[in-house]
Design goal:
Layout lengths: L1 H24 L5 H14 L5 H13 L2 H12 L2 H38 L1
């Protein structure tokens, strides 16, 4: 179990390091995003042992809510802004979420329909 945890930490650290290198040379996107893409590609092409990483990733997903607590607390610092523009913010959140889900759904349907033909 400890070996799998160390393997997972090493794999994620390596991918983040590669992401930082890519971001330093290419730029444009955050290093963590390049790291996630690198991690996904290494898993996809089986350069990393997914059975060793699976339990650590499942644990991370189960405890992901802790990562959002500071953001939720930080919102309170801008209470006056929320108080004066709250309905506008909620409206924008709902509209953009609806548009994003619609576009993703339509894109997915198009991909599925093209692959079936």
């Amino acid at each position: 179990m400890i070996k799998n945890i160390l393997y997972s930490i090493a794999a994620l650290s390596f991918c983040l390091f590669l992401g930082k290198l890519i971001a330093a040379y290419i730029g444009g996107l955050p290093a963590s995003l390049y790291g996630m893409v690198t991690f996904t590609l290494l898993l996809h092409y089986q350069c990393l042992n997914d059975s060793k990483i699976k339990k650590s990733i499942a644990w991370g997903l189960q405890n992901m809510g802790v990562c959002f607590v500071p953001a939720g607390v930080g919102i309170i610092n801008h209470f006056e802004l929320i108080k004066s523009h709250g309905l506008t913010i909620v409206f924008i959140i709902f509209i953009t979420t609806f548009l994003l889900m619609t576009l993703v759904g339509l894109g997915y349907q198009k991909i599925i329909n093209n692959s079936l033909n």
